[in-house]
Structure formats: structure tokens, C-alpha cells
Amino acid sequence: MPMNIAVVLHSSRSDEIVKKINEAAGEAEPEAFSSTDSVLQLLSLCLLLIVILIAAYYTSKFIGRYKMGQLKDSNIRIIEAYRLGTNKMLQIVKIANKYVVLGISKDQIIYITELDESEVLTHDIHEGEKLSFRQIYEKIKGKKQ
């Protein structure tokens, strides 16, 4: 069968081949899309986007609660962190009942000193006390003035 195709191509001139291709292209017509189809496609894509955003929101809330549950029962807490430069920071970390100052860089962690509990200022939020966004914003705004 491949032999027959080769024979047909050799026997016909290039003008005939171009003519046949143009005739075949003229017969193929694109599908006619109505404006209703376009609007339905747009609405379905918007609905899909909304579903994805809702799923991402609830997934992040679930993971956040899970991680907070893990951190609540932990013996290690970061009290404060201060960035010194790119990839360099100081952190005050509470490990069990001790407060430790650590120097942290990209490649290493260095023990600097241990602090007394009286030297450390902590900002604890009690479990029952939940602040709204407005209360937190007003608190931050008051500190800056």
C-alpha cells in the first residue's frame, strides 16, 4: 500500500496536489459557536474557579488547625525573632522552662546565651480571649503612634 501512495504522488504534478489540498480545506468548515455557548463556558469556568477557591480556603483552615494543635502541646516555642539581614536572625526560644537566644543563619544555628524568665517580655493571648481583626488593628495602630 505505501507503494501506491508513492506512485500517485510521483505521477501527479505539484499544482494538482495544491488544488486537492485547497478543495479539502474548503470543505472543512469550523463549528459555529453561538454566544449562548460562550456565556455558558464562561459561567462554568467561573463556577469552577469559585469551587477551587472554596476548597483551598477550607483546606488551609484545616491544616492550620492541625498545626496549631501540634504546636499547642509542644515544649518549644519561638517567643520573638529579629531579622539581622538576609538569611540571618536572632530568636528567643522557650525550650521547656528555659529561654535561649539563638543566632540562626542559612547554614547553622549558634547558641548565644540563656535568659532569665524575668528578662523576657512575653505577649500571651489566653485561650478564651480571641481578638477580632479590628481589635488587633487598633492595638497595632496605637503602638505606632
Biggest pleated sheet: 4 strands, antiparallel
Low-confidence stretches: 1-11
The run of helices and strands is HHHEEEEH
**What overall form do the CA principal axes indicate?**
elongated
Output the radius of gyration.
Answer: 34 Å
Structural notes for this entry:
- There is one protein chain.
- The chain is an alpha+beta fold and 145 residues long.
- Among the domains are: 36-70; 75-117.
- Helices cover 51% and strands 23% of the residues.
- The chain is built from four helices and four strands.
- The protein has helices at residues 2-11, 14-27, 35-72, 133-144, and strands at residues 76-85, 88-95, 98-105, 109-115.
- The chain has a four-stranded antiparallel β-sheet, with no helix packed on it.
- Strand 2 (88-95) and strand 3 (98-105) form a beta hairpin.
- The longest helix has 38 residues, at 35-72.
- The model is unreliable at 1-11 (pLDDT under 50).
Properties at a glance:
145 residues; alpha+beta; four-stranded antiparallel β-sheet; elongated; disordered N terminus
List the helices and strands and how they pair.
Layout (H helix, E strand, L loop, with lengths): L1 H10 L2 H14 L7 H38 L3 E10 L2 E8 L2 E8 L3 E7 L17 H12 L1
Antiparallel strand pairs: 1-2, 2-3, 3-4
Q: Care to give the gist of this entry?
A:
The chain is an alpha+beta fold. The protein has helices at residues 2-11, 14-27, 35-72, 133-144; strands spanning 76-85, 88-95, 98-105, 109-115. Among the domains are: 36-70; 75-117.
